[in-house]
Amino acid sequence: MLGAALVVLVAAVGCKPQPDPPTPPQGFDACASPSTSTMQAWMDNSPYTSIGIYVGGALRACAQPNLTPSWVTTVQGHGWHLFPIWVGPQAPCTSYGETLPTDPFGAFLNGVQQAQFASTAMHNLGFGLFAHVWYDLEAYFPTASCTAQAQAAGVQNFVRGWAWQLHQLGFGAGVYSSLCCGIDDLAAVYNTTAPSERADSMWIAAWNNTSNLFGFTGTVLTDQMWSDHQRIHQFHGGHDETWGSVTINIDNDADGIYWP
Which residue ranges form the domains of the chain, and what is each CATH number? Predict the structure, then answer.
């Protein structure tokens, strides 16, 4: 690990898919970063070793009073792996307060801009070069005014700009999205996207209650794509869990980034 770096950039070209371990390392994400005492209690008592944290973005839902450089250092000292998440404009023609354009150049520039904002937030929290940050792109569906093709083009070009700029700034570029939508649209252009403009990792939202990292069906995502420690799978949605007498509302994640 370099400084507070989380994940070294990995090349996706020519990688063979790796089989799932018997039980992938387990993680969770929560809307607000818990206190350091809660994180210590969960490290001591829960099966989890990684957490998704919302580091910023115009559409971040929860305030983050606990999230400071000191918090990052402290919980990493507990042994936690951190997955920073950025929540900016969403897919074209969705009902969110900020959305992406469908034109390729405008979408690409939006990706560049969001990457610049995210990199500043990462630096401010003490994350060093080569740390990953994941863009939160929620599920989206065609509308009367926006075809599936137009939405896909906006998302694909946005992620190209996001990845390109983060790579230029020395960070890893991840994307969180639903398997049905963002993941599928990015997988569709995996082989035609230059590595410099391709996301380094995918955080796959597919609530099948199974902690698999590969073998997804009904999608163009193959096991050969993002295959080398480049996947997280959010497999169960929001619910309360209690460990060490402390309760948090979480989503469950299978951590393919830090598995052996």
Answer: 26-255 (3.20.20.80)
